[in-house]
Amino acid sequence: MIVSFLDDKPVGVTLEPPKNPHITIKKKFKLVDLNEEDLIKKLSAEESIKGVKHLKLGGRKEHGDENNEVIEVLNPEVWQELHERIRQVLDSYIVSRDPHFENNNYLPHVTWKMNGTVNLDPKPYINKTFDVTTLYLIERVHPTESIAKILAKIKL
User: Fold this and answer.
1) Average pLDDT, the chain
2) How far is CA 155 from CA 52, 56, 152, in A?
3) Whole-number pLDDT of residue 143
4) Over the stretch 6-64, which tens digit does the pLDDT of each residue have?
5) d(CA 105, CA 44)
6) Cα(120)–Cα(118) distance, rounded to whole angstroms?
7) Rounded CA gap, 33 and 24, in Å?
8) Angle in degrees, 0-180, between the axes of helices 76-90 and 36-45, rounded to the nearest 10
9) Residue-wise pLDDT tens digits, 133-147
10) For the chain, domain boundaries
11) Which residues pair with 5 in a beta bridge?
12) How far apart are CA 2 and CA 93, in angstroms?
């Protein structure tokens, strides 16, 4: 996955993404015809994704039902464009594992409650703006739990 955490994280750390505020840019995918090192080089060199992105967060919002709540992104077009550019750059090198969350179905948000579990306190993020300067390439390292390792940081 490619995400942007709202606070700095070091490469190599293992964490639970739902407990760390972030916006997902590209959901799960499998590499095809490209290794991890070349993927990082390709994204690092891609000029169309460069530049600080402002993440403007609004209020709490249900996502499906009361068991799933997010913090709404007030400037979704910035994140939809970034998602689309990354998807286009990687298109011939990956197979998406969640294609139903792509294109027009991509909804930028910060999840704070998932499947009835509160993963983080939403209050510090409501109606705030963050300058996002880094993408994180993360890989799931547990087959059933949402635990991932940060593989790389990519400057925007």
Assistant:
1) 96
2) 9, 19, 10
3) 87
4) 999 999 999 999 999 999 999 999 999 899 999 999 999 999 999 999 999 999 999 99
5) 26
6) 6
7) 23
8) 130
9) 999 999 999 988 999
10) 2-155
11) 22
12) 15
Say which amino acid occupies 139. E
Q: H/E/C letters for each residue in the chain?
A: CEEEECCCCCCCCEECHHHCCEEEEECCEEECCCCHHHHHHHHHHCHHHCCCEEEEEEEEEEECEEEEEEEEECCHHHHHHHHHHHHHHHHHHEEECCHHHCHHHCCCEEEEEECCEECCCCHHHCCCEEEECEEEEEEECCCCCCCEEEEEEEEC
Length of the chain: 156
* Superfamily name and number for 2-155: Cyclic phosphodiesterase (3.90.1140.10)
CA distance 118 to 95: 31
Q: What is the rounded distance in angstroms from the CA atom of residue 14 to the CA atom of residue 148? A: 6
Nearest to 131 by CA among 49, 56, 19, 23: 56
Q: Which two tokens stand for residue 22?
A: 């972030």
- Provide the whole-model pTM: 0.94
Residue 10 φ then ψ, to 5°: -85, 150
